[in-house]
Design a protein that fits this description.
The relative contact order is 0.24. Strands 1, 2, 3, 4, 5, 8, 9, 10, 11, 12 and 13 form an 11-stranded antiparallel sheet that branches. This protein has a two-stranded antiparallel ribbon with strand order 6-7. 12% of the residues lie in helices and 43% in strands. The longest helix has 12 residues. It has 3 helices and 13 strands; from the N terminus they run ααβββαββββββββββ.
Length: 242
């Protein structure tokens, strides 16, 4: 979670890859704030998850105050060369122009969306609550350097909730929610007041956990104007690459 949705928006105003986090749940009283065996198992599974095993399609809808909603469809194919792995398929339902395709090729798409990223923080101190559908973990903060917005490290001011699905043979993190309400400045022209990121994961037929969908909402001001930026992302058509 090191890329910055807000920083990318201020530079390009065309895409906000949505990254990582949760589900809201009604839970029983929490236990002591210590890592446990289930956390250790989740971290081990995440670390073993390949980051570039599947091709997939990403649909990203971006909207901000004072601007119309824009939807991008991109294809990721790890069998291609690094420079060609991301392909812009459409913008608002139409075929992209050659200029838009070239711009997309030069865009920093950030790290490959992957369940493996959970290993960076899920083993940290957390409170645990048993729920009807699994186990809910609450993290008071993230490890330093885990969540950065431009040059600002928001990790210490970010709270996370993660819902673990324990109904199957292999438990996995199904929902994650990340929230930060501490204001800070970005690139001297913008300020952020709050960030909320929701991420959902699912298991494929081969047992690999992958991102399913995500939303991010950022409130603040840019060039003195208050507003909100929201991104909705879905990941579909996963295909294993031999």
């Amino acid at each position: 979670m090191t890329s910055s949705p807000f920083a990318r928006a201020t530079r390009h105003r065309s895409r906000i890859p949505a990254l990582a986090l949760i589900a809201l749940a009604t839970a029983a009283p929490s236990t002591a704030a210590h890592a446990d065996a289930l956390q250790t198992r989740i971290v081990a599974t995440a670390r073993a998850t390949p980051t570039a095993r599947h091709a997939f399609r990403r649909t990203l809808a971006f909207e901000r105050t004072g601007a119309p909603r824009t939807t991008y469809v991109e294809q990721f194919d790890p069998s291609r060369s690094p420079a060609e792995r991301w392909s812009l398929m459409s913008i608002d339902g139409r075929a992209p122009t050659p200029k838009e395709i070239e711009k997309s090729r030069k865009t920093n798409h950030g790290p490959i969306p992957s369940y493996a990223k959970l290993a960076d923080w899920f083993g940290g101190p957390a409170t645990r609550s048993e729920t009807g559908g699994g186990v809910l973990y609450r993290f008071a903060r993230l490890p330093a350097g885990t969540f950065k917005i431009g040059s600002h490290d928001a990790s210490a001011d970010t709270q996370v909730e993660a819902m673990v699905n324990t109904s199957g043979a292999v438990p996995f993190v199904e929902h994650v929610r990340m929230t930060s309400n501490k204001s800070f400045s970005v690139m001297l022209v913008a300020s952020l007041r709050s960030i909320t990121v929701d991420q959902r994961y699912r298991l494929l037929g081969d047992g690999i956990a992958v991102p399913s969908d995500a939303t991010s909402a950022l409130t603040g001001a840019m060039m003195g104007k208050a507003g909100t930026m929201r991104t909705t992302t879905s990941y579909t058509e996963f295909r294993a690459i031999p």
